[in-house]
Amino acid sequence: MSEKTFLFDVTGMHCQGCAKKITDSLLGRGLAKNLEVDVAKGKVVVVAGEGATSMSLKNEIEKLGFKVSKFELKK
Q1: Strand order from edge to edge, sheet including 67-74
Q2: Overall pTM surpassing 0.85 (yes/no)
Q3: FRET label pair with 67: which of 18, 44, 51, 57, CA 20 to 30 Å apart?
Q4: Residue 50: enclosing H or E segment and its boundaries?
Q5: CA distance 67 to 63
Q6: Per-residue pLDDT reduced to its tens digit, 6-41
């Protein structure tokens, strides 16, 4: 099974603390195998963990207090 990589446009991130909050949550819950957070651009790129979906990732990010304005499967 191939890995799925998603690109999320996220608003409400202001600092590296925000990036750490997202990183710790997604990795800690096993929703992500790897991810990169670009606070300045408002982008989060996630290599999905086993069984994670775009909606489960979006919901987790929003549960942390951020807003996902757009997301897509990265080719």
Answers
A1: 32-38, 43-48, 5-11, 67-74
A2: yes
A3: 51
A4: none
A5: 9
A6: 999 999 999 999 999 999 999 999 999 999 999 999
